[in-house]
Amino acid sequence: KFKGEKTLVAFAAGMLCLNIGVGVISIGVMAGLYFIFRYVSLAAIGSALFAYLFSIIAIDTKWVHKLVLCCAVLVIIEYRKNIVGILKGTESKFRYRKDAIAIFDEL
After folding, report:
1. Among 89, 82, 87, 94, CA closest to 35
2. CA-CA distance, 88 to 107, in Å (whole number)?
3. CA dist 33 → 29, 49, 54, 56 (Å)
4. Is the pLDDT of residue 2 over 70?
């Protein structure tokens, strides 16, 4: 069974190994979506779908498209319950334990 964080790391590493451009772009999209929405699951799915679309544009090999699509489907399957929670409004956003400003006050 897949676990969320391990799925993300495996997806990112796989995209980097497959094509450095697709990997870097998908990690950038994941980071951007995460910082905007604060949902890891939403960032992972958005990144996986973007990686598939970008692979179609950037890579000419059909088997690579199918491989990236399979990876994207696995990511979607992993986070399907979280997306249902987001749509229902029951999924909590990621929050840091301490406020960012409070961290600097302790220094």
Report:
1. 94
2. 40
3. 6, 12, 16, 21
4. no
Q: What is the mean pLDDT of the chain?
A: 84
Identify whether the C-beta of residue 22 lies closer than 8 Å to the C-beta of residue 68: yes
CA-to-CA distance for 85 and 102, rounded, in angstroms? Answer: 30
DSSP state letter for 21: H
Q: What is the Cα–Cα distance from 51 to 54, expressed in whole angstroms? A: 5
Is the CB of residue 91 less than 8 Å from the CB of residue 41? yes
Decide if pLDDT at 98 tops 80. Answer: no
Contact 40, 94 (CB under 8 A): yes
Pick from 65, 24, 73: nearest CA to 48: 73
CA dist 52 and 72 (Å) reads 7
Could you tell me if 51 and 15 are in contact, meaning their C-beta atoms sit under 8 angstroms apart? yes
